[in-house]
Prior knowledge:
Two copies of one chain form a homodimer.
Chain A: E1 3-8, H1 16-31, E2 35-40, H2 46-57, H3 63-87, E3 92-95, E4 102-104, E5 113-116, H4 119-126, E6 130-134, E7 137-139, E8 145-147, H5 152-163, E9 168-173, E10 194-195, H6 197-208, H7 213-222, E11 226-230, E12 238-240, H8 244-247, E13 254-270, H9 275-285, E14 290-295, E15 302-309, H10 314-328, E16 332-345, H11 355-365, E17 372-376, E18 379-385, H12 389-399
Amino acid sequence: MALIVQKYGGSSVADSEKIKSVARRIARAKDEGNQLVVVVSAMGDTTDELIRMAQQVSEQPDERELDMLLSTGELISSTLLVMALESLGYKAVSLTGGQAGIQTDSSYSQARILRVDPQRILAELEKGNIVIVAGFQGVTQDMDITTLGRGGSDTTAVALAASLNAEVCQIYTDVEGVYTADPRLVSEATKLKEIGYEEMLELASYGAKILHPRAVELGGLYDMPILVASSFSDSPGTLICKEASMEVRNKARGIAQDTNVAKITVINVPDHPGIAAAIFEPLAKANISVDTIVQNASIENITDLTFTVARSDLVKAMSIVEPVIKSIGAKRCVTDSTLAKVSIVGTGMQNTPGYAARMFRALYEQGINIQLITTSEIRITCIIAEDRVKDAVQALHKAFELEIA
Amino acid sequence: MALIVQKYGGSSVADSEKIKSVARRIARAKDEGNQLVVVVSAMGDTTDELIRMAQQVSEQPDERELDMLLSTGELISSTLLVMALESLGYKAVSLTGGQAGIQTDSSYSQARILRVDPQRILAELEKGNIVIVAGFQGVTQDMDITTLGRGGSDTTAVALAASLNAEVCQIYTDVEGVYTADPRLVSEATKLKEIGYEEMLELASYGAKILHPRAVELGGLYDMPILVASSFSDSPGTLICKEASMEVRNKARGIAQDTNVAKITVINVPDHPGIAAAIFEPLAKANISVDTIVQNASIENITDLTFTVARSDLVKAMSIVEPVIKSIGAKRCVTDSTLAKVSIVGTGMQNTPGYAARMFRALYEQGINIQLITTSEIRITCIIAEDRVKDAVQALHKAFELEIA
């Protein structure tokens, strides 16, 4: 008898018919002889609706209160899912994050899981129950309710799977799996059977948006295989696991793109120690993630410094950078928010010559200008004009022969 | 500095404007230098909406799951109320029933409070917080969420007031207080300044429907004064307390009516031991409350047995009684669902001659026929035709000079 953790997202339980359909899926997995722990998100746009209610009574809702408010969304979906299972004749029980033993720190709205005490879940499984756990939430040591922030329910599922030593953590969502490229851009994009944790991380961070990086990281840390599959079909999905990287070593695995990119260039920066800190420390304090940073070679102690931020952070970032520019004696600052990133991702890529060159040639042949280049162990990213993203992704998909992945 | 417990019902927090208005009321009480614990019901028809959702996925929702589902209604209203208070500049914190230390048995949907551990509430008051508690709910020893059933939030408020040794428990609702009669029937009805627990119990059970009997009983048990007042006006309301009965001893305090009455008469019952049990035990098992029971004097060991049930229970009651009739050898059964109760209520009434006679005369003078009579220590009830209720209540109000209460 295998213990399986499943997770269903908000769109999979958006109304009573969808809840009943998810119940039938769970029932099928139970009939196959598995023990089941199922993590569920709030129904459809419940969370947005609750936030709207909060905004009607307060311009800046207290985070502790907002977390308790938002946690009700998952309580509603999890109890309804139990009722639907019971009306199919299956024994089931719903647990709040707290009841499920998910203990977090007290960083409201973005709490981190400190530990999972799976005692109650194990007792319910022992009784033959299917256990439905409200995702996205936990409790502090003082029994205050917290939410886990973005990707919260995915993280709940992987954390439970790890602590229960489950066979697999199955994430059911509204996509069929992980593709070699965004199928909306590349019609030849193929679904990957397997992908490594690190590869998935690079893909997800760079726009694949299938599974939150936090959940992938946790999966990698505990070596918990994560299946990503559609909750609306029976196609097999993509398994995120450790083994994948060995089998497919030295191969590009997928193309990712991200259009939420803005570039800031500080011109004529005096090139002496402390300048970078003067610019990036206040941005970090304002919780603005700086991505690619490039500094041109210094000529006569004057340099240009370029970096990218999320486009949605651009206005805030500029309000912080502009006063700094004057204080450090730089000349001025220019921005460009018409850019995008395209990346090729694959384990061991950087150790293998030729990948970068192949990427640059493919873009060159399409007449696409590369503005910035940045690389990691398993990723090469080019920043290009946003209106060339589709051409770039298609050209790269072809150049790396991903249609026969 | 006085510690006050307030309770606001669902209609008082039905939308964001009403929540803000309640917040301003609470703020005013805080400004007067009080420590405040506020119990809140679910917004408007949230509970009905949640029940409707449950019914869409299950014909007979599991009670444990339904309780957890329904408990979210009060979490939503209590967190929103905190946000509204904070945006007025007041420190506040919301607590679930469990966090507030309300421990219950595990009778889902109608849990009884076993004890209140007010440690967390006291700690929050100590920090200067206004404490908002989600009404209607508690937790079992196993940390499962329960709801308290009808009158749950009132009961939460009185239980907290008792365990915190509060100065008063203020129940804010959509009526102005307790009247000598239903103001919709008697235009001269006057609001009572005070009323005793037992008097209130008789009034409430007999249709006043202002405060659930369970909360009144608990108040009486712990001698906790309960103020019932409007959440929409500043009029002073009615105080339910022990002293009232001393001051106003031997006086009719109010008239109550109840039109949810049906009469069942079993004709030609053999008059021997065990017959009453044979009829009433199966009714009790089916959870049908039997009210007035009258048995005519036996003539030749044959008697008629009459009793009343809530009109809404009549069909169910008859389905239980009819098979019994045959088995005990009674002749047949007749029902009447066009009846109503009118009662006069006042402490020590039964020990004072003349009240019953005065009541019967007042009804007689209106040509109102009395079908059944039943009395308690502090109440005399007549069962009459429903279409004469208004006349009866007006006549009794006048006969007992309640317009000058």
